[in-house]
Structure formats: C-alpha cells, structure tokens
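From: lab user (bench 3)
To: helpdesk
Subject: output format question, protein + coenzyme A

Hello, I'm new to running complex predictions and I'm not sure whether the block I got back is the full result or only part of it. Here's what I submitted:
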Amino acid sequence: MKNEAEIRIVPLTTEHLSAVMKIERAVFRDAWTTTAFLELLGFSDKCWAVFAGEELAGYLVTQWVLDEVHILNLAVAPSTQRRGVATQLMNFLLSLSRRRGMRDLFLEVRVSNLAAISLYEGLGFHELAVRPRYYPDGENARLMHLHLPDRAAGEPSRTNGHKTGELQG
Ligand SMILES: CC(C)(COP(=O)(O)OP(=O)(O)OC[C@H]1O[C@@H](n2cnc3c(N)ncnc32)[C@H](O)[C@@H]1OP(=O)(O)O)[C@@H](O)C(=O)NCCC(=O)NCCS
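Helpdesk reply: Thanks, we reran it on our side. This is the complete output you should expect:
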C-alpha cells in the first residue's frame, strides 16, 4: 500500500514564499519568479500551501472566475512526491469547488508532463484542446477540463479513490 503523507492545508501567504520558491525552482524549468507569486497572492485568495509535518510539501495556486476554477500552479517537493500529496490537495480543491457551486475546472499542462497528466486524468480531467507552442521553449500545452456535476441533478461525482477532506478554504 502507498505510504500516503499526512497533510495540512493552509492558505498560502507571503511567509511561505521562500520555501515555495525552493520547490518551484527544483521542479520547473520555467519557474515562476517571486514577483509572479506576489502579484497572484495580491488578487487571489484561492492559493494554498500544504504541509507534511513541519515541512512545506507543496502548493496550489488557482484563480476563480464566475463559476470557473483555473489552476495556475501546482507543485509538490521532490522529497514528498508520489505520496498522494497532489491528489489530496486536488481533492480538497474539488470538494471546495463543489461546495461553492463552481462548475468547471481548467488547467494547462506540458504535453511531456506524463506524471501530471496521469494525476489529472485520475481525477477525471480530460483533454479539451492542444495549445500549440504555449510554453516559452515552444512546447505544446494540453488544455485539460473537468466539469463538476450538478449534485442536485443526481449526476455521480468522481474521484480516484483517495480521501476527500472537507478542509478550510
Ligand atoms: C505532478 C505532481 C504535482 C504530482 O504530485 P504527487 O504528490 O507526487 O502526486 P500523487 O502522489 O498524488 O500521485 C497521483 C498520481 O499521479 C500520477 N503520478 C504522480 N507522479 C508520477 C510519476 N513520477 N510518474 C508517473 N505518474 C505519476 C500517478 O497516476 C499517481 O497515482 P499512483 O501513485 O496511484 O500511481 C508532482 O510530480 C510535481 O510537483 N511535479 C513537478 C511540477 C508539475 O509538473 N506540476 C504540474 C504542472 S501542470
């Protein structure tokens, strides 16, 4: 059985930024700058830090527009990867989105990022389109989408079996 990390999700604030930047630079070749994070934190309160014990294990940055959730950044520290952290964080987002009446989630991912694509597909996302040369190095992006069913209409919800926390947000 997978050694799933025990996590704690809190709103992302500027005090997390130096630890965030360490992860960001370790996992992305086109890492966001501190300024980019600061700008986003200035207008989005839908950004979360995730802790495993005392250590910052990852973060999730989203923007909510009408009933759409746009996932702008998601990363897990290399030392904590493959322990269900991203799945728990995404299930937290899906649960919160449902409770707040959001209907659609969107994200872009590099076509070569098979780990992330597998994560998103496991949560029910599917490819909506390919955005040619979306990244600065010319790589294409997959635009991925998840429609949240209207529970009142009786449509079944879908997760990949990991626990879904009703956490703050
Ligand atoms: C993608 C990423 C966020 C996944 O985080 P994680 O906490 O390791 O993911 P989880 O442990 O919840 O894994 C969930 C599923 O994702 C897929 N997955 C995750 N890492 C994988 C890998 N290295 N190879 C293949 N599949 C992988 C698997 O389907 C996995 O399910 P399984 O472990 O039951 O097989 C992490 O690898 C990361 O930070 N990568 C660099 C940044 C990035 O690519 N962010 C996404 C940008 S769109």
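A quick orientation on your result: Helices lie at 17-27, 34-43, 85-99, 114-122. Let us know if anything else is unclear.
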